[in-house]
Specification:
alpha/beta, two-stranded antiparallel ribbon
Length: 185
């Protein structure tokens, strides 16, 4: 009879071997791909949204700061907390000439329901094939990773956030935005 400890050891070893055999290394996908360079033009995009005329492009946002945040999925706990914090802080961002834009692989109908249920007053973009998430190094498998980017009014990427705690992320982004804006004066 095999002991429980031996069974668990064999089980973990087998799982590790299978993962290695399939070349599934978590570090290869940990960042979601190559991040765009800071102080360079941010990757342009045009995506459908649940608000306005139905599409938003980065070029449409020239002249204002942009916080572009990627998140895995509407209605999940972390994503809901993060969205609520951005909504709570939205007046402060607007005072700083800054637009909040959320991006996930969810479709526009899901985004519309999410905005309605959470009272979100900023656009969510539908990156259903992951093309924009990939351009920003924020795509893993079939979802966007929780990454955020600050883009200046000229479309230049000024900061990147990859280790995001949804509960405090909006405050962190806002503090960094204030520093970036004061340095531009």
């Amino acid at each position: 009879m095999i002991s429980r400890r031996t069974f668990i050891t064999v089980l973990f070893t087998t799982c590790f071997s299978l993962i290695s055999w399939f070349n599934f290394t978590p570090t290869a996908h940990a960042m979601g791909g190559k991040l765009p360079a800071i102080n360079q033009p941010a990757p342009d995009f045009t995506l459908p949204t649940n608000t306005g005329d139905g599409k938003i492009s980065l070029a449409d946002l020239r002249g204002q700061w942009v916080v572009l945040y990627f998140y895995p999925q509407d209605f999940t706990s972390g994503c809901t907390i993060e969205a609520r914090r951005f909504q709570q802080d939205l007046p402060k961002y607007l005072e700083k000439n800054t637009q909040i834009i959320g991006v996930s692989a969810d479709d526009i109908d899901s985004h519309a329901e999410f905005c309605d249920s959470e009272g979100l007053k900023f656009p969510l973009l539908a990156d259903t094939n992951g093309a924009v998430s990939k351009a920003y190094g924020s795509w893993i498998g079939y979802v966007s990773m929780r990454h955020s980017f600050i883009i200046d009014p000229q479309g230049i990427l000024r900061d990147t956030f990859v280790k995001v705690n949804p509960s405090i992320h909006s405050a962190e982004v806002f503090a960094r935005l204030e520093k970036l804006q004061s340095a531009d004066l």
